[in-house]
Every structure is written in structure tokens, then in C-alpha cells.
Amino acid sequence: MLLKHAVRTLCVGAGGQVAAAAAGACSLRRLCTDTVDLKKALSELIPAQRERLKALRKAHGKRVVGEVTVEQIVGGMRGLPVMGAGGGGAMLWETSLLDPEKGIRFRGLSIPELQAKLPTAVEGGQPLPEGLLWLLLTGQVPTKPQVAAVTEELRHRAHVPPHVLRLLNAMTHDTHPMTQLSVGVMALQTGSHFAAAYRRGARKDLHWESVYEDSMDLVAKLPRLAAMIYRHSYKGGEHIQPSMSLDWAGNLAHMMGYEDPGCLEMMRMYQTIHSDHEGGNVSAHTTHLVGSALSDPYLSYAAGMNGLAGPLHGLANQEVLRWLKDLTAKLGPRPDKEAVRKYVQDTLASGKVVPGYGHAVLRKTDPRYICQREFAQKYMPDYPLFKLVSDLYEVVPEVLGKTGKIKNPWPNVDAHSGVLLQYYGISEENFYTVLFGVSRALGVLSQGIWSRALGLPIERPKSITMAALEAACAPAEARPVAAAEGAAAEGGTEAIPMPASAAV
Ligand code: AMX
């Protein structure tokens, strides 16, 4: 590991983990060494967390924590099973938790708390995402030297081998940037430490170590890869070398070709707030699922990125910009609110979604939207596109609310991010989801390291046929018949009862 200078001790006793402390739950123990070495810090935390999970399973493994409804099974597994605050959960995810009303908490910290506590590049500025990475992995707010050590570690891991650029060059310039990202990450997989260690027969309790190496390598290389994709797609393949004095997110802006200090700060904020949104969203869940088969971090993250590329998920930031451009093309740059209302109604009437609005879990305005709005109020208060987005905030929720079916009419993260990028000249909206994807690596790969450290098993939920569900819901006296019909209809041999455990 790089840079092992001593810093002040963090040993302040047990129970200090910000997230669990807030929740009153058992927590990660405080680090008791003077280290700026992230891997060493992790290795000190892992044994106690393994014991914690073991004890939980032993004491409560058979405890019923909720009921499952038919609606939950056919409705995308939302709120499964319902238990306690936060709306329940169907998988273990340690790095962040989404409250439907309050929004995301990163190891217990809200976005304003991140902004207040994490080290920054600029006095009073936006958090450095490297600090968030430390927080996600250890549950501890890092010191400045710890963040500096992560920046340095990432710098040393950032090289992207030439075969990746050759592969990008082989793709046409109009290949969607998310396709290029997925292909580029897959090409990087040749360097997987985990795949090599597994081939050599690495012990299961040591899997996390090579997964850590892969994850840090991948996080380090992503800004370079993303910038290569950007320059390949839009700037005639004229690439820009990384700066050895810039931080991880600042370097991303620099390698894309943007040097405005405001743009660098925007990139630090953007990369921080898009990083993690608990485990159930498509990109996180996919990364988690694929990783559970012991596919290495490159394979599992690339799979997650293919999910992020869907228009109902990360691609929504691109869709928002297209929708805004279409709006201004039809109505002019600053239409009145009545015209905007009509445009929103027309969108709904044409059977399309209003991009950037709604959420599967959130029931209030996304704090990530608010954070970006506050950034815009500070850096670009008079920018016409920002004013238009502010008008939409006043009009869209009311129109969506009137439909009576949309559970959350409020804006999500994607309603605002494109405006900030446009302001700094990053006008190519097809690229926006790549920036989201680079950030998302921080969260999903951190959890991936913990998943291997905790030895979580292959994920394999049992599925069910419609006939079996109908049979399970039929009145008791009708069940055998329904079951038999269901089984016959499906060409199967049995419909109910369903086995509680799943087989691979
Ligand atoms: N515009 C129009 N209709 C919407 C809508 C929107 N913004 N949000 C929800 N609806 C519709 C749904 O399509 C659904 O219609 P149906 O009953 O005819 O199928 C109905 O309202 C109920 O949906 P819901 O329970 O409120 O939402 P959901 O959990 O099924 O979907 C989401 C959540 C995000 C996919 C949806 O709100 C949506 O499509 N939003 C627009 C796309 C978007 O902004 N996605 C980004 C989300 C954040 C992210 O992942 N980056």
C-alpha cells in the first residue's frame, strides 16, 4: 500500500460509526491505529463485523421480520419485507440507506452533513469523493491526510492499458457512451486480481483482499476511461493526460477538457452525491447480484452499468436534457408557467414518462436534487436553463399529482444534473450517464468489498409462476383444484406449497 504516514489516532472507543450510532444499532468499531492505509483500516474492521453477522444469524436466523404480498412479488419486490423505519429491505447493504421521506444517508450522514464534515479541495468547498470512499468503506469520517492518501493511491493505480484505447477506437464515434463504458470496463478485466487469485485457489476468507485491489484499481481508472470515451466521442480523439496535482474528480473534469474551478467543484459534488443509493436500485442490485456469483468487480460493475443505462434509471439524466431541449425548441427559452404545464400534460398524454420525476422508494424531493439546486443558486443563479428547471419544480409535481397514480410526484437527482453540466459547457447529454456511472462505482464497489469480507452467499431468490400465486390465493377448499390446474397450465408437476429455501 502507498503512503503510510502516521496521523492522529482515531481510537475513540467503540460505537463511533456514524451510521449505526444514529440508528442506535450495533456499529463498526472505531479504528484503533494511526493509519492512512485504507486497506489496513478495513482489515482491522472486518473480523468484528464477521462476528456480528454470525451472531445475528445464530440468534435470529429464523425470525420472521415481515410478510410478503402478491403485489410485492409481481410489483418489482418493493418494500420486501416491511420492517421498521426506512421501509424495509430484501438484501444486506451496509454503505448507505434510503429513507423514503428524508432521502439517502451515507453511513448515517445526510448530504449536508457530508458537505460539512468531509475534507474539501477548496476551503469551504464541496467534499472530495475520496473522503466519501473512505467513509463508505470504514464508516469513519476521514482526516485530511487519510483523504490525501486515498487520492495518492488512486493516482498510482490510474493507468489504463493501451489495449483499452485501441478497443474504444475500434468503435464508431456514435456508439453510445454507456456502451463504450461497459466495453471499456470489460476490457480492463484482464487485470483482475480477484480472477487470478480465485484461479490460484485463494481462500474464501481472503477474497475481500483481491476484490479490494480490483475495486481500487477500477475506481482509479474510471475517470481516465470516462475522459477517453468523452474525447473519443466528441473531441476527435484528442486525449488529455491526467494532472499529477489534481484530485480524482478534478482530474476527471481536467481530462475531459474542462478547467474552470467552478466546474471542478461541480464535479466533486456530482461524484459524491451520485455514488450510492442503498442496494435495491438497478445498478447497485445488479452489481451485487453478479458479484454474488464471485464474478470479479469488473464483471459485476459492468453489469451494473448496463442497468444504469436504462432510461428509467441512470439514463434519465440524458432524457431530461433531451426533454428540456425539446421544450425550449417548441416554446422558447423562458416559456410562461401555463405553457410549461401544457407541455408536461402533453408528455403524459403521449404515453411517456416525465423524466427526472418520480421514484420507486423516495416520497419527497430528492436531497440530491436539492443539493444541486443549491449549487446552481450559488454558481449560476441567472442561467436561463436553471430558471426553467426551477419553474418546472413549481409546475410538474402538481400535474403529476393530479394523475392520482404516481406515488412520488417530486423531482429526483436526474432532474437537475444536466443543467449544471450544460452551464460549464459539457453539452453532450448522451455522455451524462457515464458521469453518473463513474460515481456509482464508489458505492457499489465498496459494498462489493464488504460482501466478500462478510462472505455473503450467492443471491438466488425463488421465483414463482402466476398459476402458483393464484393457487396460493385461492380459498382453502379450492386450493388443491387450483393447484392442480395451475400446475397443469404451467406444464409443471406441482404449484403449491412453495419451498421456503431456494436452490441454485
Ligand atoms: N411520469 C409519468 N408517469 C410516471 C412517472 C413520471 N415521472 N413516475 C411514475 N409514473 C407512472 C408509472 O409509470 C406507473 O404507471 P403505470 O401504473 O401505468 O405503469 C405509475 O405512475 C405508478 O408508478 P410509481 O409506483 O409511482 O413509480 P415506479 O416505482 O413504478 O417507478 C420510476 C419509479 C423512477 C421508474 C418512475 O417514477 C419514472 O419512470 N420516472 C421517470 C424516469 C426517471 O426519472 N427515472 C430516474 C429515477 C432515479 C434514478 O434511478 N436515477
From TrEMBL:
Gene Ontology biological process terms in this record: carbohydrate metabolic process; citrate metabolic process; tricarboxylic acid cycle
Top-rank taxon: Eukaryota
InterPro entries for the chain: Citrate_synth-like_lrg_a-sub, Citrate_synth-like_sm_a-sub, Citrate_synthase, Citrate_synthase_AS, Citrate_synthase_euk, Citrate_synthase_sf
List of catalytic residues: H313, H359, D414
Gene Ontology terms, MF aspect: acyltransferase activity, acyl groups converted into alkyl on transfer
Keywords on record: Transferase
Organism: Gonium pectorale (Green alga)
CC annotations in GO: mitochondrial matrix
Protein's UniProt name: Citrate synthase
Similarity comment: family membership: Belongs to the citrate synthase family.
